[in-house]
Amino acid sequence: MVQRGTGWSEFWVWVGAAETAAWRLKWVALPVMFVVLWFGGKIYRSIRLQPKRFCGLKYARTGLLASATVAFLIAFLIGVTVPARLEQRQLAKEAAIRAHWYTFEAAVTEYRQRYHTYPNDFKDLRDRIPDTYGTLADALNNLDPLGYRAYGDFAVVGVERSRGLRGAAVRPASFTAGDDIQPGGLTYTKYELRLPGEDKITGTDDDWVVRDGMIMKLSEIAKGGVGSSVSAGVLQP
């Protein structure tokens, strides 16, 4: 309450302060309260079994009840905050995943602006995009290179590369390739990225999928949420 400085007359402000205090003191208050309850219960039993030798049975009962009430309140105040704290922890983990994607998205966007195509793989992105502060390297280290795939509805193919694409139907691009595109190279117009979830392993149900500039959970796609139109074949890394 001293830290907050306001709301001294509001009930829920006191409740919030009590929850915060209980959580911060949990590793001290709970062990102390268990010890107090144990000693209090032992003293109460001694007085109750030998009322002629000891006095103050009423006070011992009241003290034991007060100690039990305080212990219950501390445990209750800690318990009611657990769901919210678990949710906040989950949001923090998801924010870390999104932060890696935002860094990756900025890098591939810069790559496309420079070379008029998305990178073929992570190595291509590392070699051709400057990383002054190391943020891109950190993001790529937390991503699985096998989860990245560049593709497109059409591709600009040079003469040398097109001879090797037997049976491939390649439509002309609707834009002119830039001077930075190497002869015989493909121009990718889209990319897909699969990010590992909390288990840090790609290919599990807690993965995230990035497609068409949107990031979504694989579990949400399976339940018919946003991005449910993504086919199972596309989701394979």
Describe the protein's topology.
Blueprint lengths: L10 H14 L1 H24 L7 H59 L6 H7 L6 H7 L6 E4 L7 H4 L27 E6 L12 E4 L2 E4 H5 L15
Antiparallel strand pairs: 1-2, 2-3, 3-4
Structural overview:
This protein has helices at 11-24, 26-49, 57-115, 122-128, 135-141, 159-162, 218-222, and strands at 148-151, 190-195, 208-211, 214-217. Helices cover 51% and strands 8% of the residues. The chain has a four-stranded antiparallel sheet with strand order 1-2-3-4. It is built from seven helices and four strands; from the N terminus they run αααααβαβββα. With 237 residues, it is an alpha+beta fold. Mean pLDDT is 76; it is low at 158-179 and 226-237. Among the domains are: 1-118, no CATH class; 194-237, no CATH class.
Task: Please tag this protein with its features.
single chain; 237 residues; 4-stranded antiparallel beta sheet; 7 helices
What coarse outline follows from CA principal-axis ratios? elongated
State the major sheet: 4 strands, antiparallel
Kindly state the number of beta strands.
4
**Count of helical stretches:** 7
Strand order, main sheet: write it out.
1-2-3-4
> Helices and strands: which structural class?
alpha+beta
Pick out the low-confidence regions.
158-179, 226-237
Helix content: 40-55%
Q: SSE order in H/E notation? A: HHHHHEHEEEH
Cα distance spanning the termini: 52 Å
Output mean pLDDT: 76
Radius of gyration: 31 Å
Q: Estimate what percentage of residues fall within beta strands.
A: 5-15%
